[in-house]
Amino acid sequence: MLLEGKNAIVYGAAGQVGSALVTAFAGHGAKVHLVGRTRSALDAVADRVVADGGHAETAVVDALDEAAVDEHADAVAAGSGSIDISVNVIDVADVQGTPLAEMSLQDFEQPIRIATRSTFLTTRAAARHMIRQRSGVILTFGGDGGGEPIRDYWIGGFQVALVAVDFLRRQLAAELGGYGIRVLGLHTGGIVEGLPDNLPERETITEMIVGKTMLKRAATFADVGNAAVFAASDLAASMTATSLNITCGAVTD
Asked: Cα separation of 146 and 57, whole Å?
């Protein structure tokens, strides 16, 4: 039980990555606070956690709403005694498949605005309590950590959003480290497990992701959950301002 007694907030908890994180955190003893915008979807994940003997609470919160995010974090800290882990994996609703030269400004800006705003708001809300505690772990998610452009597919503003969040992670680590707060990223290089079977580009995207790996497979949702548990646990107590490379060898570092 690597996370026994810890309180974790997962924003976007009903999504594929979010539910994997919730399951992993709860499986290692954390009380998980599931946050999202759809009550029924959150409750379905929480019910599975509870059925397996875990602890979970749900809250409908828009991660782009400053007041709502702050209010929820304050309630978690007051009701549970601490915020020990915070991770934001909400859907950035990006538009892909259109060349940048033909993309509208709105479509380009959308993932950048959502990713940076939600990461900033959720991190700030948790950090205020973690500073008081002088401990805590903040996790970011996404990207491959390589900083290379995508050459074989039009990805819009998505990669720009991930790079922006990645630098925000580094800056947060620098500013929060003195309070005992660690900030780490989880980089997968893409998870093909979650691609819809009827997606026309599924085969192309799968080959693009898997073809770059050394292990000849992509990371799974279970891989993400396992890496997140390690990152949030005391086993990684000396790690901050870095990313965990779970790209299956697509990125060498």
From this structure: 36
